[in-house]
Amino acid sequence: MEYTPEDKKKANLDNVAKDILYKTLDKNIFSKIKTCATAKDIWEKLTQIFKGNDETKENKLTVSQQKYESIKMREGENMAELDERFSVVVIEFTSLGKEYSNKELALKVMRALPKEWDVKTMAMRESKDLNKLDLHDLFANLKAYEFELETKM
């Protein structure tokens, strides 16, 4: 059987893609995909390995949801640390297909703050359109306020 130029091009691209995938995987993962014939097969196997089946995804989503619902600012934690923890949770559930609106995220962050932040969060709720306030801007505003409080002490 002779390959057409198009077949050769596809085979070459597949080999390049497989080579890239092989070079990025550690030995444990490589052993799970080494029998895959094409780059597409490798990608599908990796997706299955890292995302899991529907039941696994549902369990991960449930755990992620619980983390989201229970997040609170810890005693002694600063705004940058809360920002980091909250962002990790948001990225986790977003990767599982769950998304919240800007308003829902902003309100959740505000509820996660201790009582001494009530005046600030009330002012933000009244003065800002929470539907248009993204997490980055929200945390920038809260960090600026935190800095202002720290300089007054």
UniProtKB/TrEMBL annotation:
Biological source species: Dorcoceras hygrometricum
Pfam families xref list: Retrotran_gag_2
Protein name: UBN2 domain-containing protein
